C-alpha cells in the first residue's frame, strides 16, 4: 500500500488563529493551575530542583545527575528561570513546571499540527489532550515533543539537506546537555525510524541520517567532557566514571515493576491512564494501522514507544502521564489519517511512482487463524514488555512492536486486516475486562457504610435505652442509613440540612417544642451553622447519651425531649472495640 502523502499546502489563517488560541489557553491554564508553594514543596523533588537552581544561579558548578537524566545545561536553564522568578518558588515552579511543562507541551502539539497541516479541530484536540490528559510534569518532558516537532520528515527541512543534516547533529547534542536519558532514548527512536519506518528516502540517505544522529550524541558527550576538563578541571577519567560508569552502577540493582493490568491502584484521580497506556501505546503498530499512517506519525509513535522505559520503571500516575503526550499525539494523528483514507482508491502510486493495488479481502483468506495470530502478537508483546521485571522487558517490547508492524505490513498482504483485527481485540478487550475486574475489587473492598454501621452497632443500644420504645427519631445531619439500620422513621419531612434550611424554622421549631420529635440522633456538627436549630434543641432536649467512637472519629449524641422527664445520662467511649467511660480532660 502506498504511503500517505505529506501535505505541503499553506498553513492558512484559520490554522494560525487556532495556534494563537492554543497559546493563550496554555498560558492561562499554566497560571491558574499553580497554587502557592509552601514549605512541603521545598522538601520534595520539585523543591530539590529549586534549590539546585538556586545554587547554580550563585555560581556553583552545574551538576551531572545521570541517575535522573539531568545534565549541566538543564541546571543553567533552571538558574535562568530562578533569576527571572527573583527567587520565588511559586513563580519558578510556574515557569519551570507549568508554563514550560504542560503549557509548552500543548503549544508544541499545536505546532506539530501546523507543520502537518492538520485540521484546526484536530490541532485543538491534540493540544488540549496534552494540556489536560497527558500533562508533562515540567520542562524535561517537553523535550520529547520538541524533538519530534523539529525532526518531522516533512516541510522545508526535508528540502534543504544541509540544514537537515545540521539539525540532526545539533539536536541530539543539545538534548544531551539537557537530559541524557532523553537524548539516549530519542536518538534511538529516530534511528529506528530511519531504519525501519521511513519510506520516502533511499537507504543511503537513511543510513547517513542515522550516522548524523549518532554523531550529534557523541558530539554532546565530547564537548561536555572537554568543557568540564577546561572550565572545572575534572579529569576525563572522573568524567567517564560519573557520566558512563556511574550511570551503569546506579542502575545495576534497579527494580523494574511488572505492570499488572488486573490490579490497578485504588486511589482516585487519573489512574485510568495506567489502564490505557500499554494498549494505546501499541495501537499505531498494528499492521493495518502502520500501513496507512504517514511517516510523520510513525516517527511520533516510535518516539512514544521508546519512552516506555520511564513508566515501566516507575508504574505511577506522574511518570505514566508525563510520557504519554507522544502516545496521545500519535493516536490522534493515526485516527485523523485513517479517517481521511477511509475510502482509498483501488489503485494509487507508491513512493517510487509505480502503481500498487490496495488490499481487498477475499474468500481465500481464512480470517479466524489469522486473527488468532494477531491476538497472540499483541498479547505476547504486552505480557513480555510489561511483565518482565528487567530492562530487557522494555527492549523486547520495542522489538516486538516494531517487528509486528514492519513485518506484518510488508508480508501479510491481504491477510493484514484479519491479523490486525485479532490484535485490536486484545488491545481493546484486556483493558475492558480489567475495568470490570477493577469495579469488582472496589465493590469488595469498599467501606461505604463503615461509619454508619459502626454508629448503629455502638450507639444503637443507647438509642434503645433512651427512646423508651418509640421508633420515631430525627437523624441529623448525615448518615441517613441509620433510619434503616435502627429501624426508625423520621417524623418530619426534612432530611437535608442545607445552607438555606432556615426557611423551615417556622414549621420545625414548634415540633421541637411540643415533642412531636421524641428523639434526635446527632451524628456530627452541621456543615452550615443553624443557630436557631441548635438553640431550639438545647432548649427542649437533654443529651441522654454521648457515644464517642475513636476509630471512626465521630461523637454521636442521642437527645430526648425534656417532656420525658429525668433520664440517666451517659458518656461512653468506644476504644479498641470496648466500651469505656469517657474521661474528662484534665484542666
Automatic annotation (TrEMBL):
Keyword Membrane: yes
The entry's keywords: Membrane, Transmembrane, Transmembrane helix
Residue ranges crossing the lipid bilayer per the database entry: 12-32, 91-114, 121-149, 169-195, 207-228, 271-290, 365-386, 392-412, 419-436
Protein name stated in the entry: Uncharacterized protein
Species assigned in the record: Nocardioides albus
Amino acid at each position: 500500500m502506498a504511503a500517505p502523502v505529506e501535505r505541503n499546502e499553506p498553513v492558512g489563517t484559520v490554522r494560525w488563529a487556532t495556534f494563537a488560541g492554543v497559546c493563550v489557553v496554555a498560558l492561562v491554564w499554566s497560571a491558574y493551575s499553580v497554587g502557592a508553594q509552601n514549605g512541603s514543596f521545598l522538601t520534595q523533588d520539585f523543591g530539590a530542583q529549586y534549590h539546585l537552581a538556586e545554587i547554580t544561579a550563585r555560581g556553583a558548578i552545574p551538576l551531572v545527575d545521570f541517575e535522573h537524566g539531568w545534565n549541566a545545561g538543564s541546571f543553567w536553564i533552571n538558574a535562568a528561570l530562578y533569576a527571572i522568578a527573583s527567587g520565588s518558588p511559586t513563580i519558578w515552579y510556574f515557569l519551570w513546571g507549568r508554563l514550560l511543562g504542560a503549557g509548552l507541551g500543548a503549544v508544541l502539539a499545536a505546532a506539530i499540527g501546523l507543520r502537518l497541516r492538520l485540521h484546526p479541530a484536530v490541532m485543538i484536540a491534540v493540544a488540549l489532550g496534552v494540556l489536560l490528559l497527558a500533562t508533562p510534569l515540567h520542562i524535561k518532558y517537553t523535550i520529547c515533543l520538541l524533538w519530534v516537532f523539529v525532526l518531522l520528515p516533512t516541510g522545508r527541512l526535508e528540502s534543504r539537506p544541509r540544514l537537515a543534516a545540521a539539525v540532526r547533529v545539533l539536536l541530539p547534542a543539545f538534548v544531551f546537555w539537557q537530559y541524557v536519558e532523553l537524548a539516549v532514548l530519542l536518538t534511538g527512536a529516530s534511528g529506528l525510524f530511519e531504519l525501519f519506518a521511513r519510506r520516502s528516502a533511499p537507504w543511503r540517505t537513511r543510513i547517513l541520517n542515522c550516522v548524523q544522529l549518532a554523531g550529534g550524541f557523541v558530539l554532546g558527550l565530547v564537548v561536555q567532557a572537554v568543557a568540564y576538563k577546561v572550565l572545572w578541571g575534572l579529569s576525563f577519567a572522573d568524567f567517564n566514571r560519573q557520566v558512563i560508569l556511574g550511570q551503569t552502577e546506579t542502575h545495576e540493582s534497579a527494580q523494574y515493576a511488572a505492570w499488572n493490568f488486573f490490579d490497578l491502584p485504588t486511589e482516585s484521580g487519573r489512574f485510568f491512564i495506567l489502564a490505557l497506556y500499554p494498549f494505546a501505546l501499541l495501537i499505531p503498530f498494528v499492521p493495518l494501522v502502520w500501513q496507512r499512517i504517514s511517516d510523520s506519525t510513525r516517527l511520533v509513535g516510535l518516539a512514544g514507544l521508546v519512552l516506555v522505559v520511564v513508566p515501566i520503571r516507575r508504574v505511577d500516575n506522574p511518570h505514566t502521564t508525563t510520557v504519554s503526550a507522544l502516545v496521545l499525539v500519535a493516536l490522534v494523528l493515526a485516527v485523523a489519517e485513517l479517517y481521511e483514507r477511509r475510502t482509498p482508491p483501488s489503485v494509487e502510486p507508491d513512493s517510487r511512482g509505480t502503481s500498487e493495488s490496495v488490499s481487498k479481502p477475499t474468500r481465500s483468506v481464512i480470517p479466524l487463524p489469522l486473527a488468532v495470530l494477531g491476538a497472540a502478537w499483541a498479547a505476547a508483546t504486552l505480557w513480555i514488555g510489561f511483565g518482565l521485571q528487567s530492562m530487557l522487558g522494555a527492549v523486547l517490547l520495542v522489538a516486538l512492536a516494531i517487528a509486528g508492524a514492519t513485518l506484518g505490513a510488508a508480508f501479510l498482504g491481504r491477510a493484514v486486516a484479519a491479523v490486525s483485527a485479532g490484535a485490536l481485540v486484545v488491545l481493546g478487550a484486556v483493558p475492558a475486562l480489567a475495568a470490570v475486574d477493577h469495579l469488582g475489587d472496589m465493590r469488595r473492598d469498599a467501606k461505604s457504610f463503615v461509619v454508619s454501621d459502626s454508629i448503629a452497632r455502638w450507639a444503637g443500644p443507647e438509642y434503645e435505652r433512651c427512646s423508651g420504645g418509640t421508633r420515631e427519631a430525627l437523624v441529623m445531619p448525615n448518615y441517613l442509613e441509620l433510619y434503616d439500620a435502627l429501624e426508625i422513621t423520621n417524623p418530619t419531612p426534612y432530611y437535608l440540612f442545607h445552607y438555606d434550611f432556615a426557611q423551615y424554622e417556622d414549621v420545625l421549631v414548634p415540633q421541637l417544642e411540643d415533642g412531636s420529635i421524641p428523639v434526635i440522633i446527632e451524628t456530627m456538627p452541621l456543615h452550615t451553622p443553624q443557630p436557631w436549630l441548635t438553640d431550639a434543641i438545647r432548649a427542649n432536649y437533654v443529651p441522654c447519651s454521648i457515644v464517642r467512637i475513636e476509630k471512626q472519629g465521630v461523637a454521636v449524641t442521642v437527645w430526648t425531649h425534656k417532656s420525658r422527664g429525668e433520664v440517666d445520662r451517659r458518656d461512653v467511649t468506644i476504644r479498641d472495640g470496648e466500651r469505656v467511660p469517657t474521661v474528662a480532660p484534665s484542666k
